[in-house]
Each structure stands twice: as C-alpha cells, then as structure tokens.
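Help! Submission page says 'invalid entity' but I think these are all valid:
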Amino acid sequence: MKQKIQTSVIGSYPVAINTQELMNDYFTEQPSSWTPYIEQAVHDMTTAGITYVSDGQTRDPFIQLFTRKMKGCRIRERTEIIGPVRYKDPITVADQITAKRLLPRHAGLIGVLTGPFTLAKSSVDSFYHDERTLAFDFAQVLHKEAELLVKHVDFISIDEPVFSNELPEYAFELLQTITKGLSRPTRLHVCGDVSSIIPRLVDMPVDILSHEFKASPHLFDVFVEYPCKKQMCIGAVQSDDTRVESVEEIVAHVKKAITIFDENVVHIAPDCGQRLLPRDIAFQKLKNLALAGEILNER
Amino acid sequence: MFSFTKEQKVFDISGVCIGGQPGMYPTVLFGGLFFKGEPDFEDAKRHIQIFYERSKQTGVPVVPDFFIRKVEYIEPILSFIEKIIPKKQPFSLDIIEPSLKIQTLEELSSRKLLPRTIYNSLHIGMTTEEYETLQKYTPEAAILVAFNPKDKSPDGKIEVLENGAHLIENGLLKTAQTIGITKLLIDTAALAPGENSGAAIAAIPVIKEEYGLPTGCAIHNVVEKSRWLNDFPFAKKTVDVSSNTTIPLFGGDYALFGPIENTELIVPLIAWQDILISEYTENYFGISPVASHPRRKLLK
C-alpha cells in the first residue's frame, strides 16, 4: 500500500433546523439563510477529522434537493414530473461555495449528485411516461450541474441507491452522460446489497466505486470473484445503526478490504448518508473513522 | 376573473363570512393595530370606530387585527377588545413570540373570547408547548402562514401546507385539524421585493383550487419593504393601498393591511374592486353576490 487512504462522507449529515428562527426571519422580512446549517455540518465533519466533506445536504431530502430546482418538476408529496426536465439555475453550487469557504486547509470538498435513475424512480411521471427518457433528461441536467461543480469541488460523487434494486440496461450510458468530459474524478455510490450487480458495476464509467461494506460485509466475498480495477470507497461505519463502531473495529474492517482491493482502497466512509442518525452519534462515527484512517495510514 | 372548479368553503366567524367563489362574498379586511408595540388605546378606539363605520357604509366586512408584542400588553389589549369590539364581532390576534401566544391563549380562554378569536397564526415555527396549549384552548379560526423557506413558489407554499416541507412532522393543514381548529384561513406569505413576492398573489388561485379554503395575504408588506419606492414618496401610499386590490382580483378572500389608519383609503377601494368582480362573475358564471355585498349596497 503506497497511496494514503482518505476519509470521506457520502453526502447528508443530520443538523437541527431552527424553524422558529426561519419564521422570525420571515416576520422581520429578512431573507432565509441556510448558511448556519451548512456551517454546522461542515464544522462537525472537519472537526471529526474527515478529509473529504460535503455541504451536508441539509436543505432537503436528496431527491427534492435536486428536483426542486429543475424545470419540469413540481414538489408535492413526491416529485411530480409535469413537463420536460431541464436545467434552470445552479442547484447546489451556492451551498458548495459556502461549504468551501468553511474548509480548513487539509480538507477537500465532494460535489454530491443524486443519480438520474434514482431521481426518475422516485418521481411521479405525469409527462414522459417513459422512464428511460426521463432518466436521460435528469442526467443531462446533472451533467450541467457537475460542469459547474468541478470548479469548486475535488471530486463528484453520484448517489444511485436504486441501482441495488434495479440496474437498468442503460446504466452505463446514463452515468456517462453525467461524467463525460468532467475535469475531476468521479465516484459512484450505491448502497444496499449490490452483490448481484457487481459484475456490471466494476465497468461503470466512474473512477471510484462506493458501497456499504459495513452493513453488507458479504460484498467482500463477491468482489473476490469479480476482480475490480476501480478505486474503492469502503463503507466502514453503518448509517442505519446508532451503535458507534470502535476505531479498532473500523481498522480491522478496512484491513480486510485492503486484502481484497489492495492499493485501490482510496476512501473510507460511512455506509451511506448520515441524515437519519442523531447528530452526536453521526459525529462520533466520523471521529472514529478519522482516527482509524490515521492508524491505517501510519502502517 | 375566474371561478374555481373545487367547492369553496365559506366560514362564518362570529358573523363575518369569508371564502366562497369570487364575487359571492365581499373581501374581508383585517386592519392592523399596535404593530409598533405599545398600544395607544384612545387612538385605536377612534380608528376602530371609523373602520366599522366604513364597513357598514360599504358592505366590506372588517376585522381588527391586534399585534401583541410584550407580556404586559396581553391583559390591557384583551380588556380593550372586550370593551370596544362588539360582542358579535370577531377579532384577530397577531403574535410572533410562542410564549406570548401561550399566555394569551390561556387569558382568552378565561375571558371566554376564544370563539371570537382568529388566531394569527400557525406556521412552521410552532413549538410543542404552543401546540399543546392550542389543544387545550382551541380557537375556532386560525390563519395558516404558508411560508416555506426552501421554496417561495406557489408549489412551495402548498408543500408546507401539505407535508411541512420536511421541516416539521406534519403539514400545517393536518396540524391545525389535529388541534381541532375548524375554520382555516390560508395566508400565502407575502415576502419582500426580490424574494419572489409576486408568488404570494399567484398562489391564491392555486391554493383555492387545491383546497377550497379562504385564502389571502398581507400583500401591502411587500410595498412597505420596497426601497426603490422611497424615491417616489407621493406614489408609495397609493401603491401600498392599491396593492390590496390584487387579492380579490386573483380570487382571494381577505387582505391583511396595516396600519388601520389607511381605512379611509382601503375600504372604499376594496368595495369598488368587489363590485367590479361581482358584476363580471354574475354575468359570466352566474354567481350572485350575497345581500350584504358592496354591489348590492352601493349600486341600487
């Protein structure tokens, strides 16, 4: 192992939104500011010692975060597609710039995108009636966003959780629509049990694959069968369990990953976004992850 | 002008009817008092008297909207209401601070004023204590402020009514219904210029078509906060007052305006607007105005 292992997050982070304060801004006719929540997320991640952080995706759940700002989408109980999906304005760029301003020198920034297939599957389509066309239109919008994001972030991470349930035959082309020509590395995060789709995932047009190896350790066994040349982000703490993994447990877990992926292990991260965890638990998990990273890099 | 396909609810709040299809019921005007804090009761008495007189003269229903800014104002303002506001008339209480709202609800209950109170307002900033107090001391009517800090468009306002926009556990409508408030008025949350302020007006027909509930807003706030209008001091008052006409024009049911000193300008203006709307909606949609409507009162 020569390359240093970097610690990273996947995307979301739990912060408490102060709705009273937002209402006070409304009553005093001040613009609503989301900066305090981005600050809280970035502060926790960097204080924990994580190298690659996100803006915390605190504004919205990861679907509405994107669809809210796209033409053709209307937010109701779910996102409704009511016209052609098109790029309107930058979606997450302003928040990423805010996050970047808060970073200490050693830290880097991830531009997180919710994947087009997950967006399509999570929407109520009242316009296209054709999932593939909708997914590709989402991908075009995400590509434009990514082109703007690469000016501010260290890499782009595409979050496609739905792939673990259904990997469309056009998945490669779909991701390529986003990643083609980008000047920064790209990461594909698919949580859930991906064991049945690993043979196809290893060929996806991204630089790094990211999966929830901690909740699904049997993935290691499947990857042994399908040699992977991709760089890997190893899920090393669970995002759906409040038990805080010890540093030793994380180190042992990542060492197992290294026996399989060797120097391709470039990132260690939580299994998924941490939005649903209590904030103190999410922080402690990141802290232990960072400490484990230090130990692993000292070898 | 238009008519809604969704059935439109009409609420009788202590004798003031609000809601319905455009042209049926007159626009209800809420006139703001004590916005700056310290109440001047003599001045207020005079303005409320004019407010009611112009209402009687024109047919435009009016509701005094009292701001309560400090705990020491609760008792004197409620005593003033008991003394000055006719027993069969509603009033509205506009309070921001949750602890003040809680104390005021207790006081309203002990004075048996809750059936006449329009609670202004429920919104995403409601605390658990306020919610529990409202369950105990429940006003019949409340204004729901559809302010969504994530999305100021009409869709964003619907989202906060429907599901709380992932900021609160439930949407404002469900929250109000769970409390037991039966007469819900939607406020489309007018914002400062540059903050998609026009969406407050655009949202009126969207929300009425979606829910059929009485809908309005405090559109004059947009004018008050406009900086560039300061360059046109003679126009500012006109723009402020006339901005209220956009509410009935877009099918809305009520306007919150302030201060109540503007009564002499706003009440006849809204009466005029209601007459025009009624003329059209009766001719085109066959919607007859109620007997108290300004069109029946002023054009005989």
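Support: the input was valid. A stray whitespace character was the problem, and the output above is from the cleaned input. Chain A has one domain: 6-298.
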